[in-house]
């Protein structure tokens, strides 16, 4: 980290934490180093070994993360988001410390999970893909604009089990129904992000901490109310301040009364961390607070983070409102011709089924998707078909999912052609493919990864494949 000469120094800003840090010089030294990046492989699209080989071929050094089997650590200057495999959802980039809350949430296939403060979306993406093509993730955020990048990455990675809502997390509606697990990754002062965002040093302080704390208490309290009896709540921040961490958990646990919540030990084998604080500033916290997890930058070369795991007893009070089912399945005549063209069957959709998405579009959702009764979803499922064309057009997010399974009208590209395709340039048909350039839509793929939809065209001189890859998805463009 580099700061200007007139900016506050970490040693000054964080001086009050010196009694909490086991090795103060190492802590300050870590804050002055660039923050490594992290890449994790899509569980259905790419093996982590393949990801490591691919990144190495492209000139990006990586090493196994160790405590997360599907993830790699990259140098801070690795711009892996510019490569083909990222553009088509083979992997995602995320700060390593941000993986801890979802690892401790431990999503299980078929569950109904709520992420109260989902944007910008890295944790929500992990949850959705760990659920597989099952269950329901309700990804909520208060600001509609913050949901846009989340929606982009959900589409890129093919997450069909996501329902996006826009609501104040501290008053999330009772009508949403109960959830098996709830993540409250709350807004905070972001002290722990100073390695990648040095500007936070100029704005953190006790006044800002005091402003954030009531918001955090309100969100965690609502997370507890949203969780079913026997369910799990994970509270996390990217700050060091005990006032935003242990103190918030302490107030909420005390507020719900004796026996209403249990602090579950939060440990991740292979991730070097420190325990939660038993006391701070003369106040002793509730029993079990040492079970929370603290990440200090010098322990595992990460940003700063705090995570606490709470469990509700099986016989505790819960929310009885029932979620509602997704819209009924649509007539097969609307979508069957599209599957037929590519040699696909309904079985290739697996657990997914088409549902209406507005008047002229369809989405794919898991058969058991459970929508909140309230608030009204901003977006649901994975874009599937657009019906307002002569022949229904397959949406790119579903094309990425289905292309590896296609048995007809599918083209396997080499890397140069694949790179050309995702940059939206036409590909001469030439002799590379044995069959004639039949007009209409074709699915494309490279090395087992779906690339999207193309259209065969002929200008009277040469047949070519026109790329339908979205402009916003082009590597290095505005979307990624």
Write up this protein.
Helix 6 crosses helix 7 and helix 8 crosses helix 9. Helix content is 24%, strand content 24%. Strands 5, 6, 7, 8, 9, 10, 11, 14, 15 and 20 form a ten-stranded mixed β-sheet that branches. It has a five-stranded mixed β-sheet with strand order 23-25-26-27-24. It has helices spanning 10-13, 24-31, 48-57, 84-87, 99-105, 122-130, 144-157, 206-226, 246-256, 297-300, 332-341, 396-402, 415-422; strands spanning 37-41, 63-64, 71-74, 91-93, 112-115, 136-141, 162-166, 179-185, 227-237, 262-264, 274-275, 279-280, 283-284, 293-295, 305-311, 324-325, 352-356, 361-366, 370-371, 379-380, 382-386, 393-394, 410-412, 427-428, 440-446, 449-458, 463-467. The mean pLDDT is 92. The chain is globular, with a radius of gyration of 24 Å. The longest helix is centred in the middle third of the chain and has 21 residues, at 206-226. The protein contains 13 helices and 27 strands. Strand 6 (136-141), helix 7 (144-157) and strand 7 form a beta-alpha-beta unit. The protein folds into two domains: 10-311, Rossmann fold (3-Layer(aba) Sandwich), CATH 3.40.50.150; 328-364 and 384-473, Nuclear Transport Factor 2, Chain: A (Roll). It has 480 residues and is an alpha+beta fold.
